[in-house]
């Protein structure tokens, strides 16, 4: 049976002040509990704007956003409730890290949720340990490296134990060590049943990781489907300016060369492809 719908957008449109064209136009989609969703599309296609709508930072001028079937309540209390459940890790940590020290930064959200100082401290200590932040806990946030800032901006959200985590290009500008760390965190979130929505330009990662891909273009949703469908639709990829993942490219080559059958299943990773080739040889 299909899992419960966590977030549902119905006809969302959103135009920024000082702009005469909508950055989101008539966006309708559903996201279910525990899903791994990649949001893809060219620069300026509306991915970040959609994220900002999902936790109420932006209020759409048209349409309704539902969280667990209830329309979002834009009162101060309603927004606080929504934001404690739906957290955004921003693309640029400098837009997110506002407190003087790392410890204060990670405590801020939990204290705001009304936890006592003791409870907040316990959660913050645990999350700092989990994300290897303890060694630089007393540093000012502006004096951290890009990778450390990303660690803190993720901890900042996870300390609130959200149900849905939105990550806007989480590995942009990270070195391989921090990229791996972020991917591990994403994996652990999914293992714990958290719904994870990642905006990314990395087609190879999206293909092997996501349950579903949402493709955006000029503020609209062009498609929402499984990676095997999205990444084999040349027309869609061309329209959205997306590359073909390497594994699909190699598969198509092997099919054309008659090494794999034309109707073989579509692999999402190199491991899947190896399995297909082994099967064919048996
Ligand atoms: N604060 C703002 N004021 C006015 N227009 C904005 C603002 N933020 C974004 N836009 C515009 O809204 C559109 C969608 O931008 P958005 O940042 O949502 O796209 P994106 O898909 O996340 O892009 P990227 O991949 O570059 O991060 C773009 O045309 C952008 O110029």
From TrEMBL:
Annotated localization: Cell membrane
PROSITE patterns: ABC_TRANSPORTER_2 (PS50893)
Pfam families: ABC_tran (PF00005)
Gene3D superfamilies reported for this sequence: P-loop containing nucleotide triphosphate hydrolases
GO molecular function: ATP binding
Keywords: ATP-binding, Cell membrane, Membrane, Nucleotide-binding, Translocase, Transport
Primary localization class, coarse: membrane
Topological type in the membrane: Peripheral membrane protein
Ranges for domain ABC transporter: 7-243
InterPro entries: AAA+_ATPase, ABC_transporter-like_ATP-bd, ABC_transpr_CbiO/EcfA_su, Co_trans_ATP-bd, ECF_ABC_transporter_ATP-bd, P-loop_NTPase
Top-level taxon of origin: Bacteria
SMART domains from the UniProt entry: AAA
Its biological purpose: Probably part of an ABC transporter complex. Responsible for energy coupling to the transport system.
Similarity remark: Belongs to the ABC transporter superfamily.
Full protein name: ABC transporter ATP-binding protein
Species name: Aequitasia blattaphilus
